[in-house]
From TrEMBL:
Native organism: Pseudomonas fluorescens
UniProt name for this protein: DUF2790 domain-containing protein
Record carries keyword Signal: yes
A Pfam family of this chain: DUF2790
Keywords carried by this UniProt record: Signal
Signal peptide: 1-18
Superkingdom of the organism of origin: Bacteria
Length: 84
């Protein structure tokens, strides 16, 4: 279930990305846990997902509705799994 939520977050964040990246990130990294309430107004950047077939950490930098920047770490399935 946690993996599904992480994949949903990654998909949602991918749709929201406007191609902007940031070199300045907050010092505090928040860790996503099932049920965490998120206030995502704008996604600033997403980390690259490695080409492995296992669950890996991913990072999203976003701004909340108050304009505060957050860095969120969550788990996502790597892009290296194939059915061929």
């Amino acid at each position: 279930m946690k993996n599904l939520i992480a994949l949903f977050l990654a998909g949602f964040a991918t749709l929201a990305v406007a191609g902007e990246t940031s070199t300045v990130q907050p010092a505090t990294v928040e860790h996503y846990h099932y049920g965490t309430q998120l206030d995502i107004a704008r996604v600033v950047s997403l980390s690259n997902i490695p080409k492995v077939c296992e669950v890996v950490p991913a990072t999203m930098v976003y701004e909340d509705s108050q304009g505060q920047r957050h860095t969120l770490e969550y788990q996502v399935m790597g892009d290296g799994c194939s059915t061929h």
